[in-house]
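Researcher: We're teaching a course module on how sequence relates to structure. For the next exercise, students receive a sequence and then see the predicted structure as tokens, so they can try to spot secondary structure elements on their own. Here is the exercise chain.
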Amino acid sequence: MTPQAAVDAWLAELANQRRLSPHTVGNYRRDLEKLLAASGETPLANLQVHHVRRYVAQLHGQGLAGRSLARLLSAWRGFFHWLGERGLIRANPCDGLKPPKSPRLLPKALSVDETARLLDASEDDDPLQDARDLAMFELFYSSGLRLAELVALDVDALDSIAHEGEVRVLGKRSKARLVPVGSKAREALAAWANVRGELALPGETALFVGQRGRRISPRMVELRLERRAVRLGLPKHVHPHMLRHSFASHVLQSSGDLRAVQEMLGHASIASTQVYTHLDFQHLAKVYDAAHPRAKKRSG
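Model: And here is the predicted structure for the students to work with:
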């Protein structure tokens, strides 16, 4: 079996038996084409760990990032495992190899002033949708919700928001948590509750509904937030997760309580929350550079 025929057979099995998406199979094909190009005339059965390590280093030198190399190694490892099961190779030359680390990308957050601009009262062509949008975005920022958590809320959540100042959400792995809801968000939600019946269909349980009166879709929330940010002149692309990031970084800047932020975000590990300490340092560094006389000399 030629190397190309082996690749085709493995990808066909992934598509037909494991039902992987065409997009995933296409990614695997491109990754394996890189393997075949790098190995050249060397038979797959003769490839060893040092060969694969050299191929990865070459691709890294050509600009392929750590995350892309991790996916590529995963594809290669799976392919060689498949070859091994069929007795076509003796050992998997990818075993034990790890991709180079990528620099950790910090989540983008709005400044406090930018967030205030985004959540200021604004005039929209449709006052019903505008009331709903303000309630959604205030709740996003107030409680650090994920997009899926927000759209899944039902109208009965208004009771605990109004009386206890908190909302119960179902996060990843169906883990429930209670998060506080600030006064501005409660005001916006009360205003939305007063007009929701004009947009929601009878019997609809969703707290937030779209123009057709049914539960609003995540994509529509994204589009409405992007539209609002553009209308208000914010100088960056704003998406729902950015409001979650902004919530986390602003609370951490004010309180310094990493564990509390972890609980409110619903992170299973404190490591996931620690990224916001870097955002906090960025904020401090900007203040330092703007205010410290020695910093001004340093940057001049």
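Model: If you want an answer key for the exercise: The mean pLDDT is 84. DSSP finds 15 helices and two strands in the chain.
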